[in-house]
Amino acid sequence: MSNKISFNKIATQSHNSASGTGYDASNALDGNTTTCMRTSIIGDNAPYKTVWWKVDLGGVHSIYSINVQFKNYNGYDIRQRGRFAGFSLYVSDIDVSSIAYIKGSTLCYKDGPQLPTLNFTTICTQFGRYVIFYNERLKEVKYPDAYQLTNVVTELCEVTVQGCNHVGIYGSNCDNPCPTNCKDNTCHIQSGKCLNCKPGWTGIYCTTKCREGWYGTNCSQQCVGHCRDGASCDHVTGQCDRGCAAGWTGLQCTKGCKDGHYGYDCINNCSGHCLSDSPCNKQTGHCDSGCDPGYTNVYCNKACKKGYFGRNCSRVCFPNCKPDTCRHTDGSCTCAAGYTDYNCTTACVQSYGEHCLHPCSLHCYNKTCDRFNGRCLLGCKDGFSGELCDRENVMKIQNVSISIGLILGLSVSVLINLIFIGCGMLLCSYDVGLFC
Predict the structure, then answer these.
(1) What's the chain's Rg over C-alpha atoms?
(2) C or N: which end of the chain has fewer Cβ atoms within 10 Å?
(3) Distance of CA 315 to the CA centre of its chain
């Protein structure tokens, strides 16, 4: 790989050397092996027990290899190798500084137990933004004999990270695009093999669709089997592209219809007349338990035909109902003239008309009238006439009044005459002699 993706990038380190200036972290990225970074001492009798250095590549890159050139002093080769021994190289997508997070990153290389060379290269085919060098000398750890445990100074003269400048390409010249269905458009920087496939695809180059009935990441999820007409679900999403089978809904057709709905994708409404508010069949819409009174057919959406009512429309409307007033659910109706009660079977008594709402005339003899039209069947009381006995006989009343007047007048006249006669006889008896 010819691309040096770490050159002159930003570098940081855990702590600086106490020996003075000129040992910045960036010295390890300037292309000059005579300028090195340096940190404070770690190990026994030192305040620090760990050390790290990292480079920010500026973005996620496809990494191929990491080369580290350690500081070499003539005649001190073994000492220098013992200082660097046991180091680790990590790759991370995010910026990390704490030891726990560094160790939680992707480990590219762990040195030991043999001493490393002072010019070290490892293949590290990873994807990341940060490359981290880490070493430690912990008091509770027993290290190999050749490891330096005191006065451990970290001096990196050059760190070279090689790879492709961005993800999605591979090859010795970084000019081959990764296969289309590689997850996150990432593939092995040398072979082009996909590290992982996009959902719905499998194979080393992710060119094979999931087999029928399976979908998703690694083709590990099984279709639920509720797609319309028995079709298989989409190999990528698991969705039923042609819709759901009757009785099912949702993108993946995993939800049964709610009560009151049925059919493909649950788009149809039940009639609402299934017996006792029971839900209809969610596949067919049929009322499997039967219909409420007043409705018929498998969907219970057809009212009883004229003249019938009740469960299964099996009852005939009562004969004394007015035409077209019989309710198809319970048979209640408007009664024809002369009848009353729920089923219009009770004849009117001392009343007449629809539902016997009109009382017979008070002037009907014995309050008896025709229950249909109110005609007084036994005639009228004195002083009234007409079929409904609603007309007073005025002439008869006048004649009676005259007769009574004559009788009273004659009676008064006779009484006056008798008084005069009595007075005359009384006067004569006293010899008054007036007219005697």
Answers:
(1) 58
(2) C
(3) 44
Type and span of the H or E element at 410? helix 394-429
Q: How far apart are CA 268 and CA 247, in angstroms?
A: 10
Do the beta carbons of residue 311 and residue 291 sit within 8 Å? Answer: yes
Place of tokens 């089923």: 343
| Closest residue by Cα to residue 260 from 279, 246, 276 | 279
Q: Specify the pLDDT at position 86.
A: 97
For the segment 164-173, what is each residue's pLDDT rounded down to a tens digit?
Answer: 988 899 998 9
- CA 258 to each of CA 84, 229, 270, 375: distance values in angstroms, whole numbers, following the listed order: 68, 21, 11, 61
Count of beta carbons in the 10 Å neighbourhood of residue 86? 22
Written as one letter, the residue type at 301 is N
Nearest to 318 by CA among 302, 342, 297, 295: 342
Both structure tokens of 83:
């200082």
Q: What is the DSSP string of 272-299?
A: S-BGGGPPPPTTT---TT-B-TTEESTT
| Among 18-22, 187-191, 226-230, the least confident range | 18-22
Give the containing element (helix H, strand E) for 415. Answer: helix 394-429
Instruction: Judge contact between 82 and 115, C-beta under 8 A.
Output: yes
| CB neighbour list of residue 430: distance below 8 Å, 6 or more residues apart | none
Nearest alpha-carbon partner for 219 in 201, 196, 239 = 201
Residue owning tokens 């993946």:
252
Structural domains of the chain in order of their starting residue, each with its CATH number = 10-166 (2.60.120.260), 335-408 (no CATH)
pLDDT score at 20 = 73
What are the pLDDT digits (tens) for 347-388?
Answer: 999 999 988 999 999 999 988 999 999 999 999 999 999 999
Question: Tokens 């003075």 sit at which residue?
Answer: 20
pLDDT band at 400 (very low <50, low <70, confident <90, very high): very low
Name beta bridge partners: 391: 385
Residue by residue, DSSP assigns 11-55 as EEESS--TT-SS--GGGGGSS-TTS-EE---BSBTSSB-EEEEEE
